[in-house]
């Protein structure tokens, strides 16, 4: 937490002791972390950028929509061979004519509740985030706006009306609560789905 009580992401495995009056440090080490979640550019150059965070966020988005861990191989399709999620996600949204269709990526636990247009919009955002070219990745501000568009599509299907941004409240929190209640809350059949709904709050 900083002086404004805002949370900061930190990897305690990489933390170092330092002098209290030393504000900045610069230590070069080998790349550390879960490689399947990390930007390939970071793996090559050992240099973090804002775009690296965007990439990792895209990976998490694909995991949330598919219910699949990125570092485990899985068969996406009836006759498909085991593949990694990011490879499939890239190929599907690079070329819709691939053998594995976009609908094969959806988590079966949310299939009955998700609007497919909203699902594809969400995954297209993830696809943009994991672009291998840094300059073609969206900013996080742009990502948030696109996620709100995906949510609006979902809520429109459920006749809740589009969410509207204001300066005092996240545009999605109230709508998410309505969506969650309408689908039965804890009665959805899969407790994991409850945590997956959190992404709509971004």
TrEMBL record:
Pfam families (alphabetical): PK_Tyr_Ser-Thr (PF07714)
InterPro entries xrefs: ANXUR1/2-like, Kinase-like_dom_sf, Prot_kinase_dom, Ser-Thr/Tyr_kinase_cat_dom
UniProt GO cellular component terms: plasma membrane
Organism domain of life: Eukaryota
A molecular function GO annotation: protein kinase activity
Residues covered by the Protein kinase domain: 1-151
Protein name: Protein kinase domain-containing protein
Protein's organism: Lactuca sativa
